[in-house]
Amino acid sequence: MQATDPVTVLDLLREIQRAHDASLGFRYSCRVAMCGTCAVRVDGKSALACSTVISPDRDNVEIAPLAGLPVVRDLIVDTHPFWDQWARITPWFVPAEDEPARIAPGSREAELVDGALGCISCGACYSTCEIVQRGGDYIGPAALNRALALIADPRDGAAQQRLRVVGGAGGVDRCHYVGACTSACPVGVDPAGSIVELRRMRLRGHA
Question: ∠ at Cα 43 (121, 84), nearest 5°?
């Protein structure tokens, strides 16, 4: 690297592994903030290692594994709890049995679906959520955001099923609406807003 090149947390980790400790364990893949694999905590905040730049005047930086997930080794966490909650909301598209509906450009449905689809499943919001860190059966912000993307889509046929899940144990009523999940998202998704919208849908009996 040239002296003027920005140094990311991932650059630092790779250099430590190359020059100082070959046993250091961490994950990464795309290196362009698309896959979410490299999520860690930097100075206590969940972030992507590949896109978090370290200021040249920094002498120290604290890098830790994501919170709310079992640590396997060093910065590597076991993501099974995250994906177990993700699976609860039937995270795949279920075609409606009736005549396929359309999403009108500029409609409220289009706005909700488009806003929620950017999630890269990195776990940053999950790691930041205090309810998740306390344990229990909370579905978590990432999975609830995914649920909204599908429930709001009139072409999907499993909205009522998902509404029962998100309105049941571990669902939207567990959220304290602090908004930390949204502030942690490295790609600008608003899971806190998605949770608020899901709660409105449940109270209205939206299908």
Answer: 25
